[in-house]
Design goal:
Distance between the termini: 5 Å
Radius of gyration: 23 Å
Number of helices: 15
Strand content: 15-25%
CATH topology of one domain: Dipeptide-binding Protein, domain 3
Largest sheet: 7 strands, mixed
Oligomer: single chain
Structural class: alpha+beta
Length: 606
């Protein structure tokens, strides 16, 4: 659930971490080892943590870390993304699909030594069902739950109000009840005060410094088998060129980019000794989101979005004045596919394209006609005027760490300037505050999409709006549309895969016609790592897969140190593994990579 891919709907961090040891920058180029001989895998990331609480976090980095810290009921197979056992070893439903019973494994324990039981899972879901603060990140998964119980330590029972198609894809981290039941206000608790953090995933969180690093150690008792690296460190780089330089020096083992490497960065690394560049289709979309007029579930409006954007003709005009081919060719330089619907083509069952006559293709003349029709004509200076007689200028929220935002922003200034509309780029290190406050007109946006797309569909429902302007909802950009909500409810209750996919495509069509989300591209996952640090690592999916930001923990759990004799394959992992022999990339399990497409923005959901 990712994603997101990238911007946060969760509350901002309210407390800084305790003082911590800084990550060593002196790793030798040919070994990623700590002073005590432990094998350390350091990953350079362009995103900071929004919260270490799995009840609040929504950024891709944060949710990826939670996949390492906590088990979910199920996981996604790295080969083809079908549901596989995780904390639950099996599951079954009643004939009417209203009761689901999960068998909880008996060989998992929390890092403080206590056994993991079905009661932990029941308590986690119950808390999200009954506490608005705890429902911030994952409330959409339990909105249809009637009752959750744990009749025994190994049996979890979930009763539904109506059928729900996502019951084998509940992307909710299960937390230890005996630790979390002591928490008071879930809306303010960021899980960043006491280390190590109690978990049961393949890694244990041991240290954290905001906007600097996250440190985890291998869980030697993990039921699937211990990771092969002793430590995993995510180190934050605001300057991505500095991150690439650190990879060259051997100070980091892997660089993910922002969230992908730029074409120039990737090209500069190709052919470098001991460095492999992975360029594969990604699971995110890159979009321009429109503020439709921020409002809360109680009907109270807030923020200061531009009133002209409430007119669908204006939104369509802005669509028509964006040249996606230029975005693909000049910004992503071919490392992306032209945007269409909301879900990337990697998920072929749900991928949608606008029908003939529906597409809002690049047509500046039509864009100008729509603006004229809406009553926003040019004055003598060539400026479009609003109803107040003032020139129309849109504030576009931009991630300061994302070069794609800045590059496309310059094109918007040109394209929309020709229409007579001004553009002000607001490039910030942290876009959370203005986004939550609704104090923007448009914003570069994007999310990572899971094999089951329910979550990224849910963030545009009316139920995702904040309860009041002071609260934090799960909404992406305050969209609330009755027809879209009706379709969302239908797909959630539909078990037939083909029927459900058809409804999901109707939802994308509706979202497209509303003009609130202009999906410009599906960027590739372009990333790089040192082959003298990492011998092999699992990609997802099996063919042409990504490493960073997976739907699971496969990459970091399976990664093998370059000087290790450990097997490159992990127990229970069916994914393709990139192996490196004599410094040259060897693709194992018949997975030859090809450049296609991927998405970007500096803060996305898993």
């Amino acid at each position: 659930m990712s994603t997101r891919e990238q911007h946060s709907r969760a509350r901002r961090l309210l407390a800084a971490a305790a003082a911590a040891l800084t990550v060593s920058a002196g790793l030798a180029p040919h070994q990623a080892a700590a002073a005590d001989g432990d094998k350390v895998l350091t990953v350079a990331v362009a995103q900071s943590v929004d919260s270490l609480s799995p009840f609040l976090a929504q950024r891709l980095l944060s949710t990826s870390i939670h996949r390492l810290m906590y088990e979910y009921l199920t996981n996604y197979d790295p080969g083809d993304a079908h549901a596989v056992p995780a904390l639950a070893t099996g599951w079954k439903s009643s004939p009417d699909k209203l009761t689901w019973t999960y068998t909880i494994r008996s060989d998992s324990k929390w890092s403080d030594g206590q056994r993991v039981t079905a009661q932990d899972a029941a308590w986690t879901f119950q808390k999200i069902m009954t506490d608005e603060g705890a429902a911030t990140a994952n409330g959409s998964f339990v909105g249809n739950f009637r009752e959750v119980s744990a009749p025994s330590p190994t049996e979890l029972v979930i009763r539904l109000k109506k059928p729900q198609a996502t019951m084998t894809a509940l992307d909710v981290p299960i937390v230890p009840k005996h630790v979390w039941e002591k928490v008071g206000d879930f809306s303010k608790f960021n899980n960043d005060n006491d280390f190590p953090v109690v978990g049961n995933g393949p890694f244990i969180l041991t240290d954290y410094k905001p906007d600097s690093y996250v440190r985890l150690k291998a869980n030697k008792d993990f039921w699937r088998g211990a990771p092969k690296f002793d430590e995993l460190v995510f180190r934050y780089y605001k300057d991505q060129d500095a991150a690439v330089a650190a990879l060259r020096k051997g100070e980091v083992s892997f660089v993910a980019g922002s969230p992908s490497l730029t074409p120039a960065q990737a090209d500069s690394l190709k052919g470098e000794k001991n460095i492999h560049v992975n360029d594969a289709p990604g699971r995110r979309f890159y979009a321009l989101a429109t503020n439709p007029g921020a409002r809360a579930a109680n009907g109270q409006k807030f923020g200061d979005g531009h009133p002209t954007l409430l007119d669908e003709r204006v939104r369509h005009a802005l669509f028509r004045a964006v040249d996606r081919e230029t975005v693909i060719d000049r910004v992503f330089q071919g490392h992306a596919v032209r945007g269409e619907g909301y879900i990337p083509p990697r998920f072929s069952s749900y991928f949608w394209k606008p029908a003939d006559g529906q597409e809002l293709s690049y047509d500046p003349a039509e864009a100008a006609r729509l603006l004229d029709q809406a009553g926003y004509k040019k004055n003598g200076d060539g400026k479009r005027l609003g109803k107040d007689g003032k020139p129309i200028t849109y504030r576009v929220l931009c991630h300061a760490t994302d070069p794609n935002d800045k590059a496309i922003g310059q094109y918007l200034e040109e394209w929309w300037g020709e229409l007579g509309i001004g553009v002000t780029l607001d490039c910030l290190d942290n876009v959370t505050d203005p986004w939550l406050a609704g104090t923007y007109d448009l914003a570069f946006d994007g999310w990572s999409v899971n094999p089951d797309p329910d979550f990224v569909l849910s963030i545009h429902t009316c139920a995702a709006l904040p309860a009041t302007p002071k609260d934090t909802g799960a909404t992406d950009n305050f969209i609330c549309d009755k027809r879209y909500d009706e379709l969302y409810a239908r797909q959630l209750a539909e078990y037939d895969p083909a029927e459900r996919a058809d409804i999901v495509k109707q939802m994308q069509s509706r979202l497209y016609d509303l003009g609130y989300m202009n999906v410009m591209a599906y960027p590739n996952a372009v990333e790089a790592y040192r082959t003298d640090h990492i011998k092999s690592i699992t990609t997802m999916p099996e063919k042409a897969g990504n490493i960073y930001g997976q739907d699971g923990y496969w990459s970091w759990w399976s990664a093998t140190p370059a000087d290790s004799d450990a097997s490159s394959g992990g127990s229970g992992s069916a994914g393709v593994v990139i192996g490196v022999v004599a410094g040259a990339a060897l693709l194992v399990a018949a997975g030859v990579f090809f450049a296609l497409r991927r998405r970007a923005t500096a803060e996305d959901r898993e």
